[in-house]
Amino acid sequence: MQQLLKIFILFFFFVFLTTSYADEAIKLQKSTYNIDQCNKESYTLDDLKSYEALIDQGKLQGYNCVALYYSRKNDLQKAKEYFEKGAEKGSIESYAQLGSLYSSAFGQPNKAIPYYTTAANAGHIKAAHNLGVEYDRQLNYKQALKWYQKAADQGNVYSLLAVGHIYRKQHKYPEAIETFEKVGKLGEAGGYEALALFYKTEKGYQDFNKSEKYALKAVKLGSINAVWGLGTLYEDNFKDYDKAIEWYKKGVELGSKDSVTRLGYLYKNVLKDQEKGLYWYKQGYEKVQCEDCAFSAALTYQDLKKYNQAIEWFLKAYQAGQQDAAYGLGYLYETDLKDKEKAIEWYKKSLKTTSKYDAKYHLKKLGAKNE
User: Fold this and answer.
1) Domain segments of the chain: what residues?
2) 223-248 burial string, b = 16+ CB within 10 Å, else e?
3) What is the pLDDT of residue 200?
4) What is the CATH number of domain 35-143?
5) What is the pTM of this model?
6) Cβ atoms within 10 Å of 289's Cβ, excluding its own
7) How far is CA 14 from the centre of its chain?
8) What are the pLDDT digits (tens) for 284-304?
9) What distance in Å separates the CA atoms of residue 247 and residue 200, rounded to the nearest whole number?
10) Buried (b) or exposed (e) across 41-62, using 16+ Cβ within 10 A?
């Protein structure tokens, strides 16, 4: 018994020593140097020298600035090395940045969590929010709510918005509504956007008039999403196509791809006006760089049996990065123009896109190899 007691005492003493040592070794510190001062899209060697000078002056933020420099240069291991040096010196920002590095760059969210937790417990607001995001992704709503709320209590309105979404996911609708209202009253359009969508779609709470009311409030706060959202409300729910067109056009003026896509669809498929549908699809491609609009224009020309124009717009969509355009060209050449060689050429180009399985089927059908 005495031997067991002695072992227990020694073990307790060891834990006490190692814990005390850890606390003493890492005294977390907030830097007076704002990291935004060294967060740039591009850097020069002079920038690097100035950040290294910060380290020489004993300023913790120097490690983070050098790390950001290497991060932008895509040298992630070097970035990690300097963030780790900052963390060893006790930089709260370094812990937060290591969390972001592991989560976003390395795709290792489980390794990010301990770093975020350390920074969040030391009062780093963004780390607390990001910790909420990680738990949210894991569907661990209890922990997500805890950390979002911690960030929200420190004044982060986006975290408060996230709290509302957690309540919604938990089906705590009165709490969600109250939270979204708070967010909107704080001047963040996302709160009213969430309420507009809630009253438009949530079973048992659907109220299109309330949805309209909150979407209009979001528009007043500058929300482009609410502009095209109003268009969908008038089109889908009120069946007021004139008002839908009015709001979609406002969205186009603001550069909304969603607005112009819906406007073209409304004219073509609902109002059966192919020419106006084409007009807006082409406007979307030319004015707001909407690659899906080019694809839709191509499909419309194909429906009208104007194959030269269809090919022209499929090519525009393909060059703009619309993945299904290669498959669309293959299908047009196979079914409409009966050009087997061209069809095979374009089906093969679509093998690296989301249409690869359809392309494989048609290549096999045409007796071509899936290369």
Assistant:
1) 35-143, 156-222, 239-319, 323-371
2) bbbbbbbbbbbbbeeeeebebbbebb
3) 98
4) 1.25.40.10
5) 0.85
6) 12
7) 46
8) 999 999 999 999 999 999 999
9) 17
10) eebeeebeeebbebbeeebbbb
